[in-house]
Amino acid sequence: MSAQGGTKAIVAALGANLSIAAAKFVAFLFSGSSSMLAEAVHSVADSGNQGLLLLGGKRAQRAATEEHPFGYGRERYIYGFLVSIVLFSVGGMFAVYEGFEKIKDPHPLDDWYWPVGVLVFSVVAEGFSFRTAMKESNATRGSMSWTEFIRRAKAPELPVVLLEDFGALIGLVLALGGVGLALGTHNGVWDGIGTLCIGTLLIVIALVLAVETKSLLLGESAGAEQVAKIREAAVDGDTVTRVIHMRTQHLGPEELLVAAKIAVRHDDTAAEVAAAIDAAEARIREAVPIARAIYLEPDIYSETAATAGDDPAATPGGPGPAPASH
């Protein structure tokens, strides 16, 4: 994984969740709280998810092969999508089922100090993990809001850990509320309602993760700032006069494919055009280092053809003049 911060946040979350899961299972055995059982399963699911993210990062580092010439960078997206499935099924659906069962057949909590003590410990541990994830995210988030960061980040690990930790903290508050109301009213139904709320929260987070990682799996373009840098770097004003149209796609979080049609002068020789393409590729890689695969096609730009209408192959949101291909 290129971002050491992403790995650091995952390891911190994994350590926190393993210790929390063990403590929650002990508390459930002593108290019989369904909220504690749901939270324990949630922590186990989160631990498995962090293992998946680490495995995906490791497998994504494999070298390109003939069968996969662009490498395995997208494996990180696949494992990120698997995380959403695990969170939905193992975490969310189990908690919803357990909540309904407790509401149908409520029973008072035994040894209440076990779940309360473990929940307070869990809040501290999850808070440390969440703080680590926020700190590492700030290194790459820049001026983006947290919502924009979750939606636009090309590396799936930090958004996944952020959402998991945020969901875990909210879930712990819900569990504390359910346990507290069950103790205060001597009615175990509240414990079941708390568990049901935890399950609903996990399902919502899982769906958000699924939507975002699905977009990455389909193939997202470079960000607007990177696209602008690539366009500017490609043009030298001498041999390469403009970018006619361009496509970019992430092959992985730190691997970008760039394919563009560039305008060259009509009287340039083949050697001059070849040298101009090599120079443009070098400038693009310097401006955007993650641009690993670059394919530039030279063409002659025609002002007459440009007035005929927008090029249907033009980069979305970019300049739309059409090329005149010869």
From TrEMBL:
Cellular localization per UniProt? Membrane
Q: Which InterPro entries match?
A: Cation_efflux, Cation_efflux_CTD_sf, Cation_efflux_TM, Cation_efflux_TMD_sf, SLC30A9
User: Does the record bear Membrane in its keywords?
Assistant: yes
Signal sequence bounds? none
Domain Cation efflux protein transmembrane, first and last residues per copy: 11-218
Which Pfam families does this entry report, sorted A to Z? Cation_efflux
Would the keyword Membrane turn up in this protein's UniProt record?
Answer: yes
Instruction: Output the superkingdom of the source species.
Output: Bacteria
**Region Disordered: what ranges?**
306-326
- Give TM regions: 6-30, 77-100, 112-134, 160-183, 189-211
Q: Locations of Low complexity compositional bias?
A: 306-316
Q: Which UniProt keywords apply?
A: Membrane, Transmembrane, Transmembrane helix, Transport
Bilayer topology: Multi-pass membrane protein
Q: What is this protein called?
A: Cation diffusion facilitator family transporter
**Which organism does this sequence originate in?**
Streptomyces tremellae
